[in-house]
Design brief:
28% helix; Mago nashi protein; 151 residues; 4 helices; 7-stranded mixed β-sheet; single chain; alpha+beta
């Protein structure tokens, strides 16, 4: 069931960032889905105008700095995001969380759907989530650092 939900969310997010958000060519989404346990479920969208929308129980609007935009672009580049598969959703184990990311930069756009129970997902993708959480300081909204559990 969780895999179906993540697939549907990926389909919904695939057009996020496709609309023109301004003159800068940047757009990022990060959806962290629930697990069977205490995993936080939230979404973050960073728009080209440097606004940030965090959605969980409440919706919070914030601004990101040029340095954060640079660091996010660097994080996606370092994991070779545009060469990743569109999805890593094989079920190697159950009850894990998942993430859907989407990134537009330099005239390119891509989305990746990742179920954390898929053992075939590359380590670079897992590192990307940690970098996003660090760069955007997601613990300020969640109340604690995001603990990423993978198979």
């Amino acid at each position: 069931m969780k895999q179906i939900i993540l697939t549907l969310l990926c389909a919904c997010l695939s057009c996020v960032g496709c609309e023109d958000q301004g003159t800068d060519d940047f757009d990022m989404t990060y959806l962290h889905g629930p697990c069977h346990g205490s995993c936080p479920a939230f979404s973050i969208h960073v728009y080209s105008d440097r606004s940030l929308q965090y959605v969980a129980i409440d919706t919070i609007w914030d601004r990101v700095t040029n340095q954060q935009i640079h660091d996010l672009a660097d994080a996606f580049e370092q994991c070779n995001y545009f060469s990743l598969k569109d999805q890593y959703v094989a079920v190697g184990a159950t009850d894990f969380a998942g993430a859907v990311t989407s990134f537009r930069f330099g005239g390119r756009h891509k989305s990746v759907n990742h179920y954390f129970g898929d053992p075939s997902a590359p380590e670079e993708l897992r590192h990307l989530y940690s970098r996003i959480n660090d760069i955007l300081n997601t613990k300020q909204w969640i109340g604690h650092p995001v603990i990423l559990e993978f198979i």
